[in-house]
Design a protein that fits this description.
alpha+beta; 3-stranded mixed sheet; elongated
Length: 318
């Protein structure tokens, strides 16, 4: 009898769910689709959030949001670190499955307080509602402001650079996102006035630059400036009459010194590697010193990198 009963339960587990429910759904959606309570509570379904069932456990940030989104109420949207990640902005902390999903609600609503979810009240005049891959989310400036208290100034500079860039090749940033200017951030600061981390944002704003194409460019620029070197020009175009020879990450144009960050894509792509070699030759043929660096140079190798750049500057000014 026990074997027969266990076999019967196993058969129940394999009853197909209605296709329109997708991979994650609320208990209410399941009930409306005619899924009985016993099927909603079977062990083959996961419970990533209260009131949510999913056919598989989420392993990535995108899967976590896909699991959570069916449970959002009409007056709720993503904010804070969750919003920053949805926009593809370079938050300094890597995502972890233990990271709570952050939800904003109107001031007259009670923020959700359940496992895996962190709620907060946000006044409507402080943000614009946007959608990213079907998820309701606060605008990018609000996303930054709402996690400002957990950022150091340098980290905020990197995020502001990402907000202000119009580059289509900036890693991970959502295409079609709003392009933000320093004036836009200033205007929103005036609206928000005081908030946790506002001093960090104000300090970082004067150091942010438009046109940056990667977080590592921002990090390199700040390393140079914090070490007492002159601030380089971002994404400088080297021209031969009307032809653009190269657009270098960072440059001291008057000294003809180019500083280029080499990410993994430069190493793993054969075509990119060949273009880099040709570009360097063309720059050097025109009297430029080309200094190429990697992640190693931003960490343990930073002292050697800075010495090399100082020697290059000295060779041009002596």
């Amino acid at each position: 009898m026990r074997a027969a009963f266990g076999h019967h339960i196993g058969m129940r587990h394999r009853i197909a769910l209605p296709a329109h429910l997708g991979q994650s759904f609320t208990l209410q959606q399941a009930s409306a689709a005619g899924v009985g309570r016993w099927r909603r509570d079977t062990v083959d379904l996961h419970r990533p959030f209260r009131g949510i069932r999913s056919t598989s456990a989420p392993q990535t940030f995108a899967e976590t949001i896909a699991c959570h989104r069916p449970g959002l109420k009409a007056d709720q949207l993503y904010v804070g670190r969750t919003a920053v990640r949805l926009w593809g902005m370079p938050h300094p902390k890597a995502w972890s499955p233990k990271e709570p999903v952050e939800i904003a609600v109107p001031p007259d609503r009670t923020p959700p307080r359940t496992a895996g979810v962190k709620g907060r009240r946000v006044a409507a005049h402080r943000f614009t509602t946007c959608r990213v891959d079907g998820s309701p989310v606060v605008d990018p400036i609000t996303a930054l402001f709402s996690c400002a208290q957990e950022l150091a100034v340098d980290e905020a500079v990197i995020l502001l650079d990402a907000l202000m860039t119009s580059a289509s090749n900036y890693p991970d940033l959502q295409p079609g996102r709003p392009i933000v200017s320093a004036a836009d951030v200033e205007e929103r600061l005036a609206i928000w006035r005081s908030f946790p981390g506002h001093r960090t944002i104000r300090a970082a704003l004067s150091r942010a630059r438009p046109g940056v194409e990667s977080p590592k460019e921002s990090e390199t620029r700040m390393l140079l400036v914090s070490s007492g070197l002159p601030e380089p020009v971002v994404q400088y175009e080297v021209r031969d009459r009307q032809r653009v020879i190269a657009r270098v990450d960072l440059a001291y144009p008057e000294l003809r010194i180019a500083i280029e960050y080499e990410g993994d894509g430069h190493r793993s792509s054969k075509d990119q590697w060949r273009r880099d070699i040709q570009r360097q030759r063309e720059l050097e043929d025109r009297g430029w010193i080309v200094i190429r660096l990697t992640q190693q140079d931003l960490g343990a190798g930073s002292r050697a990198l800075l010495s090399r750049i100082r020697r290059a500057i000295l060779s041009r000014t002596a």
